[in-house]
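Input record (Table S2, row 139):
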Amino acid sequence: MERTLSIIKPDGVAKNVIGEVIKRFETAGIKIAAMKMIQLTKVQAQGFYAVHKERPFFGSLTDFMTSGPIVVMVLEGEDVIAKNRKLMGATNFEEAEEGTIRKDYATDIEKNVVHGSDAPETAAFEIGYFFNDLEIQKR
Ligand code: ATP
Ligand code: MG
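Output record (magnesium ion complex):
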């Protein structure tokens, strides 16, 4: 069993697709082990995206991520990191496969509706950034 961190970004919340995104996870057999809605501060967004701090889009990305509430979830299941990335689609929605969340709802490369951890190490860091052990359901 594997875990990953999923975020419905401010644009996804604003577009009223929280339910649609969660429905896709549940339909794929993915379990939600933790969930909350929060609004990040700039410092919190910078900490979360620290791996991107040298990238030209870091300032814009962290402004965007603080621009409204987000829904943060721990997803659980077999091979869930890769499964979630597949449901999300490519970073750039124009390159995303048909039927993916980003293809269906993203409007630009930055405002791309969802985040998903990309490896076991980043998943562990990202889950710990938002949730403590007591907040994650055990099965
Ligand atoms: P995420 O980490 O959010 O799941 P990702 O792994 O597909 O997305 P990353 O390369 O980690 O993509 O980039 C993190 C986020 O930074 C992207 O999801 C997007 O919101 C933003 N981003 C990435 N590349 C660009 C770019 N060239 N211009 C503007 N924003 C970008
Ligand atoms: Mg990433």
